[in-house]
Design a protein that fits this description.
Blueprint: E1 4-7, H1 9-22, E2 28-35, E3 39-47, H2 63-75, E4 79-88, H3 96-101, E5 107-114, E6 117-126, E7 133-140
Parallel strand pairs: 1-3, 1-7, 4-5
Antiparallel strand pairs: 2-3, 2-4, 5-6, 6-7
């Protein structure tokens, strides 16, 4: 299985804007779209980082937000394909914490923000039946870093 994800321009801008506005804390949100030969993200939807305490190195999404996300996907004939979050002043490399919290099937898009500027974006997915991340090739349409 090839690991590839494409992100359309509008959801990409939503992710970037959320990451910059939330800096120096981590932002987070859901990724929706369709999966045929590859994953294509058509909507990114920011959600509240519900992590108690220091949000500069951690994020949490409440169970209620997951329920709302599944409902949104069903009502809009989309698939909930993943989650995005930012790494403020840190590379877009999945952490041990990210791996520990990861769910099968989802893509985990991480955007690195260095001093309020987008630096990099990467995506990670669990290997089938394993607790190991595999980097997905990210195809971005009309990328412009701020």
């Amino acid at each position: 299985m090839k690991h590839k994800i494409s992100i359309k321009e509008t959801p990409l801008q939503v992710i970037y804007d959320d990451a910059i506005e939330t800096f120096p804390n981590e932002c987070c949100g859901f990724l929706y779209g369709q999966e045929k030969d590859e994953r294509v993200i058509t909507i990114a939807q920011p959600v509240l980082n519900s992590k108690k305490g220091d949000q500069r190195r951690r994020f949490e999404i409440s169970p209620l937000e997951y329920i709302k996300a599944e409902k949104f996907a069903l009502e809009n004939d989309l698939e909930l394909l993943g989650i995005y979050h930012s790494h403020p002043n840190h590379p877009a490399i999945a952490s041990v914490h990210d791996l520990a919290k990861a769910l099968p099937f989802f893509s985990y898009v991480i955007v690195s923000v260095m001093d309020k500027k987008i630096d990099d974006i990467k995506s990670w997915k669990l290997l089938d039946n394993q607790r190991i991340f595999k980097e997905e090739k990210v195809n971005i349409f009309k990328t412009t870093f701020k």
